[in-house]
Design goal:
about 150 residues; mainly alpha; binds heme C
Length: about 150
């Protein structure tokens, strides 16, 4: 007799738990589907920061190595946003060859690289300032050439 009471209490407990889950799930799914990400805009003061290595070809080899190691898993070897991890990510990694990324200032890209935004990590504690500027200099070489489509 005693055991039976216990069992049924347990059942009630599980039923409640299931009900709570059932009520929560649609809410979670809906909020995920409708969660609008605001455009990622860097602060004006960051946009104006000057890249000490702008156009400096001597840092490109280092920039490329850093890119291949740290960024390619998401952004792809050529920067198209198609790295092996990209498929699982939402939002997708930015296409560094695109006009929208290439039209940003070095300072803006540097700020985004430093701060990060989920799912992209911020690199200000991972890479030195010099390494981050080298990466921005390298990203400039990924731009689609105007002749190619
Ligand atoms: C875990 C995956 C991941 C890694 C690793 C990663 N990124 Fe990203 N990156 C993203 C995603 C996702 C976005 C888009 C974020 C958004 O729009 O909110 C992004 C956006 C950016 C942007 C902003 C582009 C824009 O639209 O203005 C820059 C710049 C950037 N990444 C550079 C880098 C560099 C350089 C590295 C390597 C040091 C790197 N990322 C590593 C996932 C990643």
């Amino acid at each position: 007799m005693k055991t039976q009471v216990r069992t049924s209490r347990k059942m009630v407990h599980w039923k409640k738990f299931t009900l709570v889950l059932a009520l929560m799930l649609p809410g979670l799914l809906i909020s995920k589907a409708f969660a609008q990400r605001t455009p990622w805009v860097s602060p004006k003061i960051a946009q104006d920061a000057k890249n000490p290595f702008a156009g400096d070809r001597s840092v490109l080899a280092e920039g490329k190595t850093l890119y291949t190691t740290n960024c390619a898993p998401c952004h792809g070897n050529k920067g198209k946003g198609d790295g092996p991890a990209a498929q699982a990510l939402n939002p997708k990694p930015a296409d560094h060859t695109s006009a929208s990324v290439q039209s940003e200032t070095d300072g803006s890209l540097f700020w985004k690289l430093s701060e990060g935004r989920n799912p992209m990590p911020g690199y200000k504690t991972i890479l030195t300032e010099r390494q981050r500027w080298e990466l921005i200099t390298y990203i400039r070489t990924l731009a689609k050439s105007p002749a190619a489509k």
